[in-house]
Amino acid sequence: IGECWVFGVKKPFTEVIKANIGDAHAMGQKPITFLRQVLALCAYPDLLDDNKFPDDSKQRARRILEACGGHSIGAYSSSQGIECIRQDVARYIEKRDDGISSDPDNIYLATGASDAIVTMLKLLVCGKGRDRTGVMISIPQYPLYSAALADLAAVQINYYLDEDKCWSLDIAELKRAVTAARQHCNPRVICIINPGNPTGQVQSRQCIEDVIRFAKEEHLFLMADEVYQDNVYAEGCKFHSFKRVLFEMGPEYSTTVEMASFHSTSKCYMGECGFRGGYMEVINMDPEVKAQLTKLVSVRLCPPVPGQALLDLVVNPPQPDEPSYDKFMKERTAVLAALAEKAGLTEQIFNTVPGITCNPVQGAMYTFPRITLPQKAIDKAKAEGQVPDMFYCMKLLEEEGICLVPGSGFGQREGTFHFRMTILPPTEKLKFVLQKISDFHIRFTQEFS
Amino acid sequence: IGECWVFGVKKPFTEVIKANIGDAHAMGQKPITFLRQVLALCAYPDLLDDNKFPDDSKQRARRILEACGGHSIGAYSSSQGIECIRQDVARYIEKRDDGISSDPDNIYLATGASDAIVTMLKLLVCGKGRDRTGVMISIPQYPLYSAALADLAAVQINYYLDEDKCWSLDIAELKRAVTAARQHCNPRVICIINPGNPTGQVQSRQCIEDVIRFAKEEHLFLMADEVYQDNVYAEGCKFHSFKRVLFEMGPEYSTTVEMASFHSTSKCYMGECGFRGGYMEVINMDPEVKAQLTKLVSVRLCPPVPGQALLDLVVNPPQPDEPSYDKFMKERTAVLAALAEKAGLTEQIFNTVPGITCNPVQGAMYTFPRITLPQKAIDKAKAEGQVPDMFYCMKLLEEEGICLVPGSGFGQREGTFHFRMTILPPTEKLKFVLQKISDFHIRFTQEFS
Ligand SMILES: Cc1ncc(COP(=O)(O)O)c(C=O)c1O
Ligand SMILES: Cc1ncc(COP(=O)(O)O)c(C=O)c1O
């Protein structure tokens, strides 16, 4: 206690701060009371007689239990997920997208968004040699994508986000990437993460339209990873769902572009990663392919039911006339307001440091600042057989007990270096971390100059 | 209410009885109090102050929460599963196997046994053409295996269980199957389910030894699906774990035969399917392959934490000196005693019906009786483009509202017909179902004679 050992050496810091994973609860965020009350009631229905729980939480729990086999969350559900929860998801999407209709039959619940994303890639990838499926992913990317593509022996087609324009997506770059790829594979899918991980950008409506037009022209299946849809902080930024923009572009697009959108219980204000709740909505999917999908998801029986229950609460939160509403809103707002504050702080503090340049954290939970490394440090890293930004992050961990992920883990333009840091630590701790990293960066630069 | 419609037609029965899936809670089995109390405490730790909960349930919940990031089951765990739970699993295995040691590093927690089985197959399958991996599975089989193998483009090598000898496994049949398969693929894996699904047999110690010897001789990786390890009912039958037998055969075997064993929270006395808890233990796995496995499981982040917590309680149940012990044992014993009674009833009643022959349900949760179908029924089914036992089951569903799975869904010897029924309905309902099926069988036989 109060001591810290890294690689067998006692350290001048008292704890390792893990700012490397987007795991809100692990960083001290408290669960939202309403969500956990309902989950406890579902797990142990004897509590339904307890007057400690508000009526709306009991009513939600009863509704979920009634939809479960034998009224127990210990029963398997259907593979696609519990029907009434899929209906709630569809209603949530309709409300979010101002009335654009959503069909519960197009909703597939999953073991987190990860499971849905991997399943969808698996469904879409096929072919051999020059016919191998190509999948376009942004660089920097969220490593789930590259890992899944490698696993499926699909061709990863990189398109680079424009760091100089706040990590925005440039259609000319998409065209370059797909044209080059057509020489050696069959590009069939484009993946977009919005708001972005690791880069924290929020896409403009215009950009989304352009991507949809591009997907249509190039006959690409569009995978929209929208797990950070509630995590938008920057003034002037707003979350636009790909589905909504697609439908607002008219039938020429809304009836032709094939798409899947992904959401999760792990992010936003709830941060409930451990429950592994998530869903995807598929749009304009060929009925035969959809039948394949339904078969594919049936192999593993069903997603975990507690995660499904949690997802139900997320898409169907307390309403203004319900007893849990005020507390729920207070907790939700506090989390999102703190994240917004921390997003601002992060950009601000890093940009005061010579050699660190940081785009605004418009959304999601990460910053991906660019770091200038002295040539001597680059040489030293290479001599030790290490990637330079890994060398940097390891030194930071050893000297300050702060754990980040080197940019090379996400991909970056040749010759540039970055790290990813989450903005999840509590405000005071985050300030401390930002200060420590800033000091370290200056020291590191001096040491190798 | 009180009316039942199948395929748009009003039926003479008032409910459809689903005796087709091994889903205990869906069939009315009540959750074990202790398990659910701890899960509720983990979900909503405010309840730790509630004096309604016994101390041992609180102490378990505290211990689990302390092992979670930020003390919340809403945090991701490590991909292999929470360390202290893997330790508890290892201790459980050691106790079960009378002291044979188990290393927590060899335990991988999973999203149900399904996930672990699919992951392991994926890890072991490779090659193309005549080098394609062959995987031996029993016929009748649990369809997860054939689906996963088809998905991985592996070669399924069937070995037939001996219906005349209580569905036992015959080494000569294994030899026949592997020898034939070596002509066109590379047999690398043998899968065994013990106690068996759908066939309900429990393997003798001798048989397990023979299988292990066979695996060693043929250089096969042994996958032992032991999810029904507590479900043994027949007099003279006992569960022998493959691991224990392997180690009792001495170092010639225990240090060479590669093996994985699977367990789950879905079966036994708890029947908690919805939580998707499970684990596998790997033994003698090549370190490089194990590193691959560790990488493979990391793609999807982690198994659901509530399922991990539940598994922890299953492997570390209340002890005699703890306040929950008596109630826990009473509930557990009641479930297992009822299953044993129903296993006996099922065999007994079916064997009174001419045209139904039923092996003893020694273990697991199913009976797989053989049915004699009149030639006219077989012809009629074929004329309608249906497999004969599917024709039979559909007719049973329409006329009696009882849902079974035709034997063809599991594989059976050419020209034989079966169905699978679970023994999970409550005793009185099971008696009713057995009587209805018996009457139906006699009527069906008369109708087509
Ligand atoms: C962009 C993105 N997609 C998907 C996921 C996976 O989320 P889940 O926990 O729902 O599997 C994450 C998790 O960090 C993510 O950042
Ligand atoms: C033999 C066998 N293995 C594995 C499973 C899968 O169990 P789980 O729910 O843990 O995925 C089942 C489920 O019925 C089974 O019968």
UniProtKB/TrEMBL annotation, chains A, B:
GO terms for biological process: L-alanine catabolic process. Pfam families: Aminotran_1_2 (PF00155). Residues 48-437 form the Aminotransferase class I/classII large domain. It is an enzyme of class 2 (transferase). Pathway: Amino-acid degradation; L-alanine degradation via transaminase pathway; pyruvate from L-alanine: step 1/1. It catalyses: L-alanine + 2-oxoglutarate = pyruvate + L-glutamate. GO terms for molecular function: L-alanine:2-oxoglutarate aminotransferase activity; pyridoxal phosphate binding. The keyword Transferase applies. GO terms for cellular component: cytoplasm. InterPro entries: ALAT1/2-like (IPR045088), Aminotransferase_I/II_large (IPR004839), PyrdxlP-dep_Trfase (IPR015424), PyrdxlP-dep_Trfase_major (IPR015421), PyrdxlP-dep_Trfase_small (IPR015422). Its EC number is 2.6.1.2. The keyword Transferase applies. Keywords: Aminotransferase, Pyridoxal phosphate, Transferase. Its cofactor is pyridoxal 5'-phosphate. Catalyzes the reversible transamination between alanine and 2-oxoglutarate to form pyruvate and glutamate. Homodimer. Belongs to the class-I pyridoxal-phosphate-dependent aminotransferase family. Alanine aminotransferase subfamily. This is alanine transaminase. It comes from Cyclopterus lumpus.
